[in-house]
Write a structure and sequence with these properties.
Elements: E1 3-7, H1 11-23, E2 29-31, E3 51-55, H2 63-71, E4 75-80, E5 93-97, H3 105-112, H4 118-127, H5 131-140, H6 145-161, H7 174-181, H8 187-193, H9 195-211, E6 218-219, E7 223-228, H10 232-248, E8 253-259, E9 264-270, H11 279-283, E10 289-291, E11 295-302, H12 303-316
Parallel strand pairs: 1-2, 1-3, 3-4, 4-5, 7-8
Antiparallel strand pairs: 6-7, 8-9, 9-11, 10-11
Amino acid sequence: MKKIDVFNGDADGICALHQMRLAHPAESELITGVKRDIQLVKNVVASEGDEVLVLDISLAKNTDAVNALLQAGCKVMYFDHHLPGELPVDENFTATIDTSPDTCTSLLVSEYLGHQYVLWAIAAAYGDNMMASAEKLADQQGLDHMQKDQLRELGICINYNGYGASLDDLHFTPIELYKAMQPYENPFDFIANETVFQTLKAGYYDDMAKAEALEPAIKTSKSAIFMLPAEKWCRRVSGVLGNDLSNKYPERAHALITETGADTYQVSVRAPQVNKAGAGTLCSQFETGGGREGAAGINVLPETEKQRFIDMFIHQYA
């Protein structure tokens, strides 16, 4: 019998797994990818009796692969906060899925574990732009302003590392980053002692300094669309920049359209902070789109579909 951990390569997925394996140590096979690589369960090779833990990827995008594992006699435990579609009905399938706009997978895992490693969940919530939820939980733990700032910066930097068209765009692969975190029960020790974090921090601030020069290509009273060129730093900041803009302009929806090829784009959408709705529904209307209602995206948007997306985005948040 083997254990297989399947997790999103962003802050939420990595911190969720870190909490689980701190609470339940085990040698496991690790399967992950860049933030947008969410059809990960199809990469699992398992047999009867194997245990598969899936964290922070939409069940709707992995239904067939999960059903195949269950049919093979595997046990599947699922934690997520994205739109799930129809849940399998099988004695070997257990799921904790909550699509509320103010929760994330690491918060769900923290609750499941009785908040044993809640500081990592707070960092993940900050990274996933669940600022109010992170602040509330931080206050409950009695964290001071400086400690909150440290966990916020940590979560944002881990999240930033997950964005890119391929692993080559990232400073560290998600597996490398997770393994660097493994020795640390306390995120403040990771912040103080781990050179990996210092590298991420420097990369984040360097890329975001470049992003400050960007102006909206299209702006209305309720929304703004940014067009980003096909450069590595643009692909790396696409998610964290969307979060940053969302926090600066909470009443405005944002879309970042990044060139990924001659005739293709990658899209990140953030619903307004004052009404975290519509992003997942909008992006799901495109072939490679999906996400949650507050934040979503499209992996590959053809040039022929770009104007349709722009029109639908503006109409969605008019």
